[in-house]
Amino acid sequence: MASSTEQIARTTPRDLPAAFWWLWSAQLVVWVGRFVVPYMTIFLTAHVGMSATQAGLVVGAYGIGVVISTLVGGTLADMIGRKRVLVGSELLSVVALVVIPLINDQLFIAVALAVYGLFNGTGGPVISTMVGDCVEPRHRRTAFNYNYWAVNLGFAVGPLAAGFMAEYSFSILFWAQAAVVLVSCVLVIFFVPETHAVTARAERAVAATAKPPGRAGLLGVFADRVFIPFIVIMFLYSIVYVQSTSTLPLVITAQGLPSSSFGILLAFNGALLCILQLPTARLFNRFSRNAVIIVAIAVTGIGFGMHAFAAALPMYLLAVGIWTLGEMGSHPQAQSLVADLADPERRGRYQGVYGLTHSLALAVGPILGGFVLDHAGSQVLWLSAAGLTVIVCILLGLTAPARSRHLSTMLQRDAERRSQNRNSDEDPSLSPVS
Predict the structure, then answer these.
(1) Which of 13, 174, 189, 404 counts the highest number of beta carbons within 10 A?
(2) Would you call 432 helix, strand, or coil by DSSP?
(3) SS3 17
């Protein structure tokens, strides 16, 4: 059952503050408008006239921009405020999206996409940081499940709409996404408070009794002997997970299945996430996050291992259904755990470093997976992926006691800050929905 160090509560939508629901709405809007990224390679080859190799280099530059922005965004969120960074990155993204279709030179388009990547990756860790700020620890698990649900709900709609727009004009993709990001930005500007200010007030109120934070800035995060092992382990898991969008379509088409089969699998994955994410969250919340994450990753490993024996669409659907159940338990639970493990005054940096591991996995995973696929075949690839999840589960189990002890300390510090904050000038928009 749930560890005594974790604050477990039956959470209803009314228990979550208004600020969270506006953030949730802004996140949903952004992901519904995720038009450009899924069609970036097609845009570069069919519309701009680049070769596949050139397009790959440009997409790689975009990816590097995203990697940098996740870390820098979290750091800036701690230094100058969450809301300022989120609004600034979204406005700069809008400018880049509007300008790109107006450029004719291939080099300038490549540079503009790389710059867009620098802005586009900032929002994720900053929103996660703000959720951790404004939601009480006992409700965070449910809040991050709602957040993950918004991402998947939006992504289920966005690429489908983008496909119809791309048939008419690729320029519309960029301008439509710019309009959607602008709507999200307006929601944040007018309805979401600066959550970092609340944390800062609480920190000053308990400064005399709080434990010294140790090393400042990113050095303090990388010196955290509990947090860093956790994200390294989760990085190994992410390398496995990204095979679902990198090597899986290659294996399916090599087996003679039509490319539409992969689209069916993605749609099936998205549908399951949209339908089952919230019901399963209620079940998962009864147990400790360490246990849920370990079991969920083990289930993910079973699903990926089943790909080694799949040769027809029904078997692939069964395998995807199994690892999707694992995805429901691993990703949002891990993200809420990061929010609770983080030193409150450096929560943005913690979320940025955690986001960095996923971005790096997106770069490293396809390379490793492609190498194994080329030199050893698909069966070895999938069985190796399943074996790596076993290693991940063992490492998570060995490090779980240290996380539980650290979690107890950080939740106590968070409670002290929030207690002081309730006695100060708390922003009413951070109160639960009435």
Answers:
(1) 174
(2) strand
(3) strand
Query: pLDDT at residue 189 above 80?
Result: yes
Write out the two tokens for 434. Answer: 């009435």
Same domain, 82 and 183: yes
Alpha carbon of residue 300 to chain centroid:
17
Domain span holding position 288: 221-424
Contact between residue 154 and residue 34 where contact means Cβ atoms under 8 Å apart: yes
| Range in 227-236, 295-304, 353-362 with the lowest mean pLDDT | 353-362
Task: From residue 319, give the alpha-carbon distance in Å to each of 44, 254, 377.
Answer: 33, 18, 18
Alpha-carbon span 114 to 73, nearest angstrom? 16
Residue 216 lies in a domain: no
d(CA 128, CA 67): 16
pLDDT in tens, 5-25: 555 557 788 889 999 999 999
58: its two tokens = 């440009």
> Quick one: angle between helices 260-284 and 137-168, nearest 10?
160
First to last CA, the chain: 31
DSSP one-letter string for 107-173: HHHHHHHHHHHHHHTSHHHHHHHHHHHHS-HHHHHHHHHHHHHHHHHHHHHHHHHHHHHHHH-HHHH
